[in-house]
Every structure is written in C-alpha cells, then in structure tokens.
Hints:
Layout: E1 4-8, H1 14-21, E2 30-33, H2 35-41, H3 43-51, E3 56-62, H4 66-76, E4 83-87, H5 92-102, E5 111-115, H6 123-129, H7 136-150, E6 154-156, H8 159-169, E7 174-177, H9 196-202, E8 206-209, H10 211-214, H11 219-230
Parallel strand pairs: 1-2, 1-8, 2-3, 3-4, 4-5, 5-6, 6-7, 7-8
Helix pairs in contact: 4-5, 5-7, 7-8, 9-11
Amino acid sequence: MGKDVIIxxxxxxxxETFRFLDNFTDEKPxxxxxxxxxxxxxxxxxxxxxRRGHKIFxxxxxxxxxxxxxxxxxxxxxxxxxxxxxxxxxxxDMMKAALEGLTREDGTRPILIAVTQLxxxxxxxxxxxxLINASINDTIVKYAQNxxxxxxxGVVCSPLEAGMVxxxxxxxxxxxxxxxxxxxxxxxxxVRVTTPEKAKEIGSDYIVVGRPITQADDPVAAYRRCCAEFxx
Length: 232
C-alpha cells in the first residue's frame, strides 16, 4: 500500500476551499472534507472536488443505531468518495451495518475506517469524563480489533498508536493518523501529535494534515515538505 498525505480542508465555504485548492497547479492532493464544510455546502462540494480530480476522505464520523448508519452509508456511497469513517464506539454491529450500506451493488465501496479515540482526547479526560477505566492504549487497540472483526479496512488513530494497532491487527490494517505537525510547528488543540517523519517510522499509512498546510504562507511548499518527510 502506498503512503499518502491527506490535506484537511477545514474551511467554512466552497469559495475558501477552491481558493486554497487553486494553489495546486501541478499536484492533485488527497483532501479531507469534514463536518464544517460538508454541512455548509452539502454533497455539491464533494462532487465538484471529485470532478477536479482529487481523491476525497469524507470525514463525517457517523455514530448512530446500526440501521440509521447503514442507510446513511448507502447515501454516501453514491458520492464516489475514496474513504469515509465512523466511530468505533458505535459497536461491532453498527460497523457491520455501515459496511453493508456502503457496499454498492457491484461490490465496490470506499475505504471504511473507524475512529478509535479523537486526538484531542487525553487518557485523563477519557477516564474522568467518559468513565472508561482502561488505559487509552488498551482502549484504542480494543476498538481497532473490533473494527477489524467487523470487516473494516482500518482505523483513525494518533500516530503514537499506529504501530501498536499494526502489531495487534496486522500490517495491512490501515492507519489514518491526524495529529501531525512539523517539528517546528504549533500543536494547536490536539494533545497526541507527532511529525510526518516520525509517523512514517511508526507505520502510518496516511497522515491527515490541516493547519500546517492550509495556514502556511506557501501551502504548496508545506504540502511538498510533508510529502518529502512522510513518503519519500
């Protein structure tokens, strides 16, 4: 499996998004469309970015009863995205239902991954606020094992846990890792972070990078730096 850098297009509107993407004349980066942009612009933004030749990770993190998630995934499968996700906390039954809904009549489907714990969640918050008494590492591994049992392709986890997930779930179980910052950058609101180079060493398959690229003075140069550190 090839590694790739996914740019988090966490913009409030289509205009902002296309203004950013217009910087890229030689590359067609893999992009993530999250809740803010999708809720603002709807399916049209997905279709237009796809038309422009980008791969898309639709990051909506579904979490509901199995039947609702199944029907929602059936709708999302028609958008021809390359990857989408849900919360592993929704249980194995929900993840199985999601996979069923996402799979088209011809058997094709986007990559489906599960969120283990958000990169903004610390072990202290998990235990004090969510009343999960296991360690954060044990919780992430268990959620990843549940996702694999449900038939999913991989998980979203911080780069710090990617190697551990690979060890427990197999090397071909995909790890998509946000929380990536340059060594000389600001960590923002995420508490479990690492650099592109370290994520490569740990075994991440995809890294999701937002502000270090989208808010850079030269986004294309920042993207190329990410690719150089993570892929090359």
